[in-house]
């Protein structure tokens, strides 16, 4: 019996060992590709940052990424939110890194984990916790023992968590690649020799953690082996890794760009993104990641910059709210399918090229078993190319790539968009019994102590803001008192208060009155505020509120860039330019707002019942507003329209939805909304949203909402009018497609919505774009009726574009296409 039990135990142990080993994933690399379980792979990845969405959004976002043809999700690890205070950790709710990785695994995708722990990412302070800045003797991102100890401690913490949860590929987990540091090569030079030593230390420290998968260093031409150096940018086709044993990897293909307060909406056309991807794989790339695939929202005070908006939409294939951005999402999905079909020839084939001149080139991949795949590119920015390739003619538009998986038939061209274009609309909140206008209560921000110089602590001279607040608040009060005597030579009744500041925004009060506000402009975060003031004999009180709008996140020594009124000078200028310098006065300080301290945005605030309901003030500085509302019906994303507000912060049911700054208008500009995808793209090219608020709508995740009554709280800094604030939902309003003969036209609405009617349908040579189509010179007779029959009342429909289905159209000299515009 004992021997029998031992045999059973041995069998079970062997079975468990087999299960464990069979679930493990072996990840390595050579000079051609990442190798997974012995097979070279073409890998398509997309960045989704877990804190820029919510856990409730993660499954849908990741599933849409998979549906779009991705293999992996890439994310940073955000040190500042995980270790907000030294050795105190937070991995809850939207910061639950482990839950996010497991969600990716459940959907069936890999993970590329960029531990950093410096991330840049347009994130506050580059993802570093500000307490690092306070440690005596520390220097960040260089050969400094204090910093290296903290960095190693956090990196080790993360790796140990991953190992404990068995999330690394050799353990059967989804993580196939890890990154240490981030774009250090872009900033390394000024750090000199200590920077070079730090780089070597990073590589050795990372290797010592024994993760069993490749480590990468992006933008690091001198990355020590076996680190893989990778490319970031709009185009990486010409990039070459620093070792013949490293594959050509693109960790950030910028699908658009971030938006700054006062800036326009960057838009990168689908044709150009697809062109950049196709060129990269034509030139030997085998791993490519979209930055971003879903940008999301900078909730709370996480936006960096300074002056980066709350929206981090990034013109990504999935928009800020998680909707498909069409045609970008669909056009790239089609490209991904073609590239995956060609995986074997791209990772094993010998490469030859044929140069046709004037920017046209063919690249042929051929394997030893005779299979081949081809790219024909045209890098000319204005002239289309007709290429005779292997006995056939191909029309390749300017700035495009045609892909021929069998080197005979073109199945995809980056400039020929056949997928749906969706025009999104915002619809009013239609919750039951929701009034047409919200009812508001209000409270003033308590200023009386600050206006007479009563603060928390005092110091001689003007302090630097970040070191003083430790970034616990955007707000720091500077307060002083000056005694003026009518008999003094520098006495004037009317004087000018002049404040030199490196802060981002400044509000000035003199003897209890608001005398001026000003903010930095043109990307220069240093300005001078001047305001006329009336002097009285005796005590005069100067109160200055300095405001930060996100801390610097990029560049060498970015952590040393000051904020606030540090050093000043602060002066009173009298008649004849007589100057009284107050910079060396005794200054009193207070960190944050009284309303922040009392948590006025929380239902548990001690002042929750002490709001005023009468005489609602509008355009009043330093005011708090609050209202209740019902959650919008349905499942579409919810936004709040803050169209008449100024600047401040917003909370829904105690959740911060970020900073708002509706009063910051974008400048009018020639060429706004005009776009030609041909030629190298930059954020100023194809931008839109001119001469309007930088950001008017703010995302309210469904998970922030309650089924019954919800509370919106606003702190208004500049002065605004809350009476026009309202909630709306976002969905597909119009769906369009233009598809040439021989292909299939597909249209769909969002969620449960169906196609209500067809605004335009033509099978022939119609012209124009979605929202402004026009009939051409020839078309089939019954196109509209046929499309109505196929599509109206349906969530989605598809139509084969051919005369057999649509009838003859008498377009003898031009290629025929079906053009449809539908309303959801």
Structural overview:
By secondary structure, this protein is α+β, with helices and mostly antiparallel strands. It folds into five domains: 2-325, Alpha-Beta Barrel (TIM Barrel), CATH 3.20.20.80; 345-418, Immunoglobulin-like; 426-445 and 599-729, Jelly Rolls, CATH 2.60.120; 448-592, Sandwich (Jelly Rolls); 741-823, Jelly Rolls (Sandwich), CATH 2.60.120. The chain has 15 helices and 41 strands. The strands form nine sheets. The chain has an eight-stranded parallel barrel, surrounded by four helices. Strand 12 (350-357) and strand 13 form a beta hairpin. Helix 2 packs parallel to helix 4 and helix 8 runs parallel beside helix 9. The radius of gyration is 30 Å and the shape is globular. The N and C termini lie far apart (72 Å). Residues 1-22 have low confidence and may be disordered.
Write down the Rg. Answer: 30 Å
Euclidean distance between termini CA atoms: 72 Å
Report the average pLDDT across residues: 94
CATH superfamily of the largest domain: Glycosidases
Strand content: 25-35%
Let me know the largest β-sheet.
8 strands, parallel, barrel
How many runs of DSSP E, i.e. beta strands? Answer: 41
Total individual domains: 5
CATH topology of the largest domain: TIM Barrel
Described by the principal axes of the CA atoms, the overall outline is globular
CATH class of the largest domain: Alpha Beta
Structural class, from secondary structure content?
A: alpha+beta
**Which residue ranges are poorly predicted, with pLDDT under 50 across at least 5 consecutive positions?**
1-22
With strands numbered from the N-terminus, the spatial order across the biggest sheet is 4-5-6-7-8-9-10-11
